Amino acid sequence: xxxxxxxxxxxxxxxxxxxxxxxxxxxxxxxxxxxxxxxxxxxxxxxxxxxxxxxxxxxxxxxxxxxxxxxxxxxxxxx
Length: 79
Prior knowledge:
The protein is of the alpha+beta class. Helices cover 15% and strands 38% of the residues. The protein has a five-stranded antiparallel beta sheet with strand order 2-1-3-4-5, covered by helices on one side. The chain starts with a strand and ends in a 7-residue tail after the last strand.
């Protein structure tokens, strides 16, 4: 199983938590971090596997359905 290294930060605290999680899938890793770290809307997560640059996500509410979940951070909508 892959080992995902992560860093979690919130608007109030620059680096709130860092560590690693071993999980069968990327989505399982995101879910485990959200449950264990008690994330809140606005938190930012950088996560990846050794040797590759991390992906960056923000815990936010979807404008479409109102569901709060991890969304890719830094993406801008086309004008």
